[in-house]
Amino acid sequence: MHLLSILLLGISTNLDNMFIGVSYGLRNKRITWSSNLVIGLFSAAATYLFCYLSSLLTEFGRTPNVVGGVFIIFVGILALIRKGDNEEKS
To answer: Containing H/E element for 17?
Structure first.
């Protein structure tokens, strides 16, 4: 089960990087090899840090999962509200 979680996390991180690359490509901007390496290292470090921190929170049971889920839902709703406000003004 842990191997599947690691695989899915790696795929999601790489999909995020792929969409960043596509957006730069559509604007005809190039990302140098060294810049791409730095982006990858920061992404890997952030993933490792948050995986480590989440392993520390397992002693609190499901509470961190619930709090994190509510936070993500809140951020999504806030983004939708702001998007609606911007469309009304234009």
So the answer is: helix 2-26
